[in-house]
């Protein structure tokens, strides 16, 4: 049985820029867990491998700091330094020649496998192969053009084709391999590719196959994603979340202060749509708590400074995997909840925009100046964080949904206690290199009362100044 794993993780991930400008590609997270850790867990749990070599180069300190010696993950990790992280995959693997003297399994660090059958690789006996290539049948021929495919004769691989322009097979080459130490000599004997100027791993294996060596296929099952670009990364996140979405719990958080006349309608609207309705009652003097509790909401009574503090407390206390914020005045409705949840498969946070005129109820507090002011400040945030590819038209809309894992990443960067908390949260997600999507939602008249932050032009101006001060402070570290 193979006892050693090797994970190449030295590349700069240029095609995944800007996501990889400040972060190693293998440290990109799928649902709160870096790609490289998922592959370490795969080696550990499915193959019983406890000794793992990792080839590091670009932004290597990030990887070392996170993984350490591997003991916290139940493995032993040894690092092999690749100073020339543009040298290519095969030459990077060659650096392990002096450390690895027995058969080993390689899994590329920038891939994710879901519900795979890697444990069946244990069926291969040590002397039965020179190379085993993990393959997967696919209907997505474009994926094959980005990776490699093979030719198989009598259950042996006889040829490999890197990024083929003409597709003759539905077999997708994946980044899972079984190797013997003979691979290192084969790498040294292979000339650099005229196209890339590098020794390509597929060309090394192709040479062995055409020499008649024992190069065999292993047919992987489950779902596979190779993260070459930002689009690949976003799709991998979407695929993971979609696969497990029914397992995630949803909490709705309602900050409230003296909302007895409307809180009942809000709780009733959401209580049967989610797993938890959490009302954060900021020391109301009316029957807000009694009404919400009677209707099945969980109520936490607090004495906090302001609106932002109350929301943050609710986000901290909510039990769900998905956290949804709504107002207590019934200006937002549960009918838009499904849209938030659908787009959350594709984003770390989804925020509503109240700027679509056809979706604003007549009499709602979204008159022209307020609406266009939100648009202007939203565009300012876009400009100041232009490299994050964000699109904002409403910085004041608090109807939003965020994954708890994403919230944990930004929690310590949220300081606003008032209405500035809303754009601060958006900016914190951008600064954490997370994905934000804005969607149009319906907006209704408050059931009662007036907005504490936008009831007149004076308060609108005061709120706008707070937001602008916070925005420039975040951008320029003032």
TrEMBL record:
Domain Glycosyltransferase 2-like: 251-362
Domain Nucleotidyl transferase: 5-234
Molecular function, one GO term: transferase activity
Gene3D superfamilies: Spore Coat Polysaccharide Biosynthesis Protein SpsA, Chain A
Stored SUPFAM superfamilies: Nucleotide-diphospho-sugar transferases
Key words, A-Z: Transferase
InterPro entries cross-referenced by the UniProt entry: Glyco_trans_2-like (IPR001173), Glycosyltransferase_2 (IPR050256), NTP_transferase_dom (IPR005835), Nucleotide-diphossugar_trans (IPR029044)
Entry protein name: Glycosyltransferase, group 2 family protein
Organism: Thioploca ingrica
């Amino acid at each position: 049985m193979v006892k050693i794993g090797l994970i190449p993780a030295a590349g700069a991930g240029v095609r995944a820029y800007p996501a990889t400008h400040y972060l190693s590609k293998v440290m990109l997270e799928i649902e709160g867990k870096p790609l490289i850790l998922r592959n370490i867990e795969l080696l550990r749990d499915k193959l019983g491998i406890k000794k793992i070599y990792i080839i590091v180069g670009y932004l290597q300190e990030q990887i070392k700091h996170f993984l350490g010696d591997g003991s916290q993950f139940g493995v032993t990790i040894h690092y092999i330094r690749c100073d020339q992280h543009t040298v290519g995959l095969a030459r990077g693997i060659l650096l392990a020649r002096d450390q690895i003297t027995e058969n080993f399994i390689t899994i590329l660090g920038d891939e994710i496998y879901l519900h795979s059958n890697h444990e069946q690789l244990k069926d291969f006996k040590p002397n039965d192969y020179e190379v085993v290539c993990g393959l997967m049948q696919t209907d997505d021929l474009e994926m094959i053009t980005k990776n490699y495919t093979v030719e198989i004769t009598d259950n042996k691989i006889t040829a490999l084709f890197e990024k083929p322009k003409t597709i003759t097979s539905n077999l997708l080459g994946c980044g899972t391999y079984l190797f013997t130490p003979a691979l290192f000599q084969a790498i040294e004997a292979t000339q650099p590719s005229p196209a890339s100027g590098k020794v390509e791993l597929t060309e090394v294996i192709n040479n062995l196959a055409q020499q008649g060596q024992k190069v065999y296929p292993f047919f992987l099952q489950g779902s596979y994603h190779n993260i070459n670009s930002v689009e690949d990364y976003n799709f991998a996140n979407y695929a993971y979340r979609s696969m497990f979405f029914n397992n995630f719990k949803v909490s709705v958080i309602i900050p409230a202060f003296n909302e007895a006349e409307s809180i009942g309608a809000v709780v009733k609207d959401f209580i049967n749509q989610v797993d938890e309705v959490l009302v954060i009652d900021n020391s109301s003097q009316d029957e807000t708590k009694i009404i919400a509790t009677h209707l099945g909401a969980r109520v936490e009574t607090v004495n906090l400074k302001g609106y932002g503090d109350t929301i943050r407390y609710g986000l901290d206390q909510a039990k769900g995997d998905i956290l949804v914020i709504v107002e207590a005045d019934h200006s937002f409705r549960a009918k838009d909840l499904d849209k938030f949840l659908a787009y959350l498969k594709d984003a770390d946070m989804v925020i509503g925009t109240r700027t679509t005129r056809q979706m604003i109820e007549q009499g709602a507090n979204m008159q022209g100046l307020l609406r266009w002011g939100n648009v202007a400040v939203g565009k300012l945030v876009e400009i100041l964080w232009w490299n994050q590819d964000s699109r904002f038209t409403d910085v004041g809309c608090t109807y939003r949904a965020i994954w708890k894992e994403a919230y944990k990443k930004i929690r310590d960067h949220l300081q606003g206690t008032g209405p500035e908390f809303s754009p601060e949260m958006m900016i914190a997600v951008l600064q954490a290199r997370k994905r934000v999507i804005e969607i149009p939602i319906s907006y209704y008249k408050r059931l009662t009362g007036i907005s504490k932050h936008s009831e007149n032009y004076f308060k609108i101006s005061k709120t706008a100044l707070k937001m602008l001060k916070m925005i420039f402070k975040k951008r320029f570290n003032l």
